[in-house]
Amino acid sequence: MKKLSLLTATLLSMWTASTVNAADVRVYGLMDESIAYVNTNGQSSQLRLDSGSLYASRFGLKGSETLSGTTSIFFKLEAGIDASTGENIQGGSGGSNLFGRESVLGISTEYGTFAFGRMGTLTSGTGSYELVSFYDSMGTGFLDAGYYSTIVGTIRANNAVTYVSPNLGGLTVSAQYSLSLDKPEAAPMSQNNRYAALGASYSNGPLSFAIVGETELKASSQESQDYRSVLAGVKYDFGTFALYGAAQWGENYVGSTYADGYFGQYSDGSWTDVDKSTAGALGISIPMYGGTFMTSVQYMHGKTLSRGDGSRTVGGVAYLYPLSKNTNLYGAYAYSNAGGALSSSSLTRSTVLIGMNYIFL
Hints:
This protein has 361 residues and is mainly beta. The chain has one domain: Beta Barrel (Porin), CATH 2.40.160.10. The protein contains one helix and 18 strands. Strands 1-3-4-6-7-8-9-10-11-12-13-14-15-16-17-18 form a 16-stranded antiparallel β-barrel. A hairpin with a 4-residue loop joins β12 (227-237) and β13. The model is unreliable at 1-22 and 258-266 (pLDDT under 50).
């Protein structure tokens, strides 16, 4: 009996100590599922269960420790989850990265924030440091209706360093550099695919905007040219509604580490031949019946390497309704039309979806 009591006391003291030590560590996550009906021109229609149609499903840990009044250390570990199968996604080759969405250690000071590790880029539409997807009224969600259908760029970077300046009257400046985007660093440095980006964002009252320039610096062993793009967005909130706009210019997508497949499930492979493009999006969001109504239209025009010019136009409407602080219902419709060199692809299609998500903090 004494041994049992001693064991109980030991376990209790260990649990208490671990609770105290973990006081600044938080478990969080999000599960998002939808049912989508996709009707593609010239093909059979498809009914499917999709994970992350609005927000990507994920599970994570984050925490911080204050070292002084203005200096703190923080970390974030975030894994992507396919809620339909339970599989790890955003995990790199073979899903080997457990925390494929973000794996960061950083320090925050009065002079700015520095973060080190794997993270979303400034244009990615994902992660802690991205700047531009907020300027699409649909954000990165609602399948074809979202940001990824016409905007291209690098998604995530390994071996990266990010700096975010202090807020200066609503203005912040961000800089990002990856020593090797997709593999461990090799010597010499010229053997690595590297990434660099510089961005600025401003938010003051109803007006906010951001602009980012980024490039992928190709390894010397590759024949393709360095990928480059400039992406900007703006939002103005009138109170009763908000207007959004975004525009991009880019070139040399082909051969880039991530931009080739950036469109992911919103593409059919045709995009891998698009080498230059300009794109734009306009949108509006309106508070309505306790939720938010959103609509947007996007257009992209690109030059392919072998098939001439191609284009894509996407229009969509969506409604998001919060059932509670942590639970949302949503529905959306999108129509995508591909023309020119992309007209024979499967990008001419309509999509209807209804979904739900739960956020736990």
